[in-house]
Design a protein that fits this description.
Aldehyde Dehydrogenase, Chain A, domain 1; Aldehyde Dehydrogenase, Chain A, domain 2; seven-stranded mixed β-sheet; six-stranded mixed β-sheet
């Protein structure tokens, strides 16, 4: 297979008020292609002053006639136009995602960017359907409610799905008339900056969407602290989410959090084993395992354990890490050297704590470059092991045998996370009964890692609160105002 071709882009500035903007500090940082270890571009390092400029631009746009006076139908049409522009540039944006994140171009071009387009079109349809209600009350009064935009939204997004998770927030925010300051992950800022340019090209008024790149500890912190930011929408680690909650209390701004996961994937002996094996493989190795809802804990009923392991190991050995830009590659590069070291550290812990390494477990390079890790499967993992309790965010699967339904439900729920789960069985009664007892925001039955713009997504427990996608997400971006009218004259 040929080496990854390096692409050198021009330096990337901030995007404020529909214009590229140089950073206040004059500082830039390199964004690295994790498959080649080469610099792609220099990206502006925003600071508190830049964040303040962006927030003030968003605040001014919120009150402008051009945005606040825009008919809801026209907002929907504008969102649809943005979706059209993004769809027309799918190949370009997918290429940016792949060289910035290391994910296979197949995922970027045929899954992630099309999902972005679908989300934008879904919320375009909602723009003129967010409304209040009239309420019957005592006395000669008319009472009705209005759904108004919450205001300026600070969106802070991670590096695993750089544009998709940003669009999950931007879509409902714009549909409801909010304005946005987006802080993309420092490691993967390129697609967000290009998307903001497309929004301006589509006719989005200046200041409605702004992008400030830089460190989370600087830009993200400034967003959470800023008194003119009305809501924070965050996707990322549980630890950072807790700090955001604490800081946001200072200005009592609204917060929604989509945090970590350690999702159980449960295989009962009566299931379609081939489908379950295929699902278990995709559930952990899609996106290199850098997926918050990854099925990283595989619970297998003892009677089918050996058959499942045989199928899984065979599949994993075929999923060879390779050039992410090659159309047939299904296992790309870990997003950074630091994350690669984190994943390898967890693999070392798995070995040290007595789990059986069934396959993988090594770092590899392609043409002597890149932060690749082999698809890794540990067998005979016990629930107290580190690899069964902590989010690894890499291609590492922990297989845990179980005896019966009661035992597997207890083990599945015995972690601090509650983001997602999957169940494989032909017994529909069992499927619904187990789904009801699993503490998770999403439960898949005889499928895994499937998403739709209309289906809400979010977590229980330390996986966060609030829901993204679907009608539910609109609640996070609107305030309900109650209006009383005296009809007695």
């Amino acid at each position: 297979m040929e080496a990854v071709k390096e692409v050198r882009l021009s330096d990337r500035q901030l995007f404020i008020g529909n214009e590229p903007s140089a950073p206040h500090s004059g500082q830039y940082f390199a964004t690295i292609n994790p498959a080649t270890e080469e610099s792609i571009a220099q990206v502006a390092a925003g600071d508190r002053e830049d964040t303040d400029r962006a927030v003030r631009a968003a605040h001014a746009a919120l009150a402008s006639k051009e945005w606040s006076g825009m008919d809801a139908t026209d907002r929907g049409r504008l969102l649809w136009n943005i979706a059209d522009l993004l769809e027309a540039r799918t190949e370009e944006i997918a290429h940016l995602e792949t060289i910035d994140n290391g994910k296979p171009i197949f995922e970027s071009q045929y899954v992630d960017i099309p999902l972005c387009v679908n989300v934008l079109r879904y919320y375009a349809g909602w723009a003129d359907k967010v409304h209040g209600a009239t309420i019957p009350v005592r006395g000669e009064n008319l009472v009705y409610t209005r759904r108004e935009p919450v205001g300026v939204v600070g969106a802070i997004t991670p590096w695993n799905f750089p544009l998709l998770l940003a669009v999950w927030k931007i879509g409902p925010a714009l549909a409801t008339g909010c304005t946005v300051v987006l802080k993309p992950a420092e490691l993967t800022s390129l697609s967000a900056l290009r998307f903001a340019e497309l929004c301006a090209e589509a006719g989005l008024p200046a200041g409605v969407l702004n992008v400030v790149t830089g460190k989370g500890s600087v830009v993200g912190q400034a967003l959470v602290e800023h008194p003119l930011v009305d809501k924070i929408a965050f996707t990322g680690s549980t630890e950072v989410g807790k700090r955001i909650m604490q800081t946001a209390a200072g200005t009592t701004k609204r917060v929604s959090l989509e945090l970590g996961g350690k999702s159980p994937n449960i295989v009962f002996s009566d299931c379609d084993l081939e489908a379950a094996i295929r699902g278990a493989h995709n559930g952990i190795f899609y996106g290199k395992g850098e997926v918050c809802a990854a099925g990283s804990r595989l619970f297998v009923e003892e009677s089918v354990h050996d058959a499942v392991m045989e199928g899984l190991v065979a599949r994993a050995k075929r999923a060879v890490p390779a050039d992410p830009l090659h159309p047939k590659t299904r296992m790309g590069a870990i997003v950074s050297e630091a994350q690669q070291k984190t994943v390898l550290g967890y693999i070392a812990k798995g070995k040290a704590e007595g789990a059986t390494l069934a396959t993988g477990g090594e770092a590899v390079k392609i043409n002597d470059r890149g932060f690749f890790v082999q698809p890794t499967i540990f067998d005979h993992v016990t629930p107290e092991m580190t690899i069964a309790r902590e989010e690894i965010f890499g291609p590492v699967l922990a297989v845990i045998p179980f005896k019966d339904e009661a035992e597997v439900i207890r083990m599945a729920n015995d972690v601090k996370y509650g983001l997602a789960a999957a169940i494989w069985t032909r017994d529909i009664t069992r499927a619904h009964a187990v789904a009801a007892r699993i503490k998770a925001g999403t439960v898949w039955i005889n499928m895994i890692n499937t998403y739709d713009a209309a289906a809400p997504f979010g977590g229980f427990k330390e996986s966060g609160f609030g829901r993204e996608l679907g009608e539910n997400a609109l609640e996070a971006y609107t305030e309900t105002k109650t209006v009383w009218v005296n009809l007695k004259g």
